[in-house]
Amino acid sequence: MTQTIRLFLLFEVATFLVAALIHRGYLIEGYAHRQAHVAESIIAAVLFGGLLLSLFMGAWTRKVALVVQGFALVGTLMGIFMIIVGVGPRTVPDIVYHVAIVLVLIAGILLARRALVPPRGGYG
C-alpha cells in the first residue's frame, strides 16, 4: 500500500511539473500563464516534499500523503474557480487537466485514507 501511495505522489508531482512548465512557456507554445505556473510549481513542490518525507520517514507516508494531496486538491479547486471566473487560463487542455487531476487527487486521498483506517471486526 505504501508503494502505491508513493506512486500516486510521484505521478502527481510529474503532472504538476509538466503543467508548470507548459504555463511557464516551455514544452508547448501559446499556453504561458504566470499565475498558473506559480501555483502549479508550489503544488508540485509540496507534493514532492511529501514524497521525500514518505521515503525517509516511511511510517508517516499515509498521513503525509493525506496532507499534501489535500493541499493539492484545494489548490486545484482554486484553479478551477479561477477558470470559472475568468482569471485563469480557459483552454480546453486546462479544463481537462484540472478535472483529471482532481479525480487523481481524490483517488490518492481515498487510498491514503483507507490505508489509515484499521479493518473493522476481525483480528488485528
Shape: elongated
User: Which spans of ≥5 residues are poorly predicted at pLDDT below 50?
Assistant: none
What is the number of E strands?
0
What is the SS-derived class? mainly alpha
Average pLDDT, all residues: 89
Largest sheet: none
Give a brief outline of the structure.
The chain has 124 residues and is mainly alpha-helical. The chain has one domain.
Write the layout of secondary structure elements.
Elements: H1 2-24, H2 34-56, H3 61-85, H4 92-116
Helix pairs in contact: 1-2, 1-3, 1-4, 2-3, 3-4
What does this structure look like?
By secondary structure, the protein is mainly alpha-helical. It has one domain (2-116). It has helices spanning 2-24, 34-56, 61-85, 92-116. Helix 3 packs antiparallel against helix 4. The chain is elongated, with a radius of gyration of 16 Å. The two termini are 17 Å apart.
List the defining traits of the structure above.
124 residues
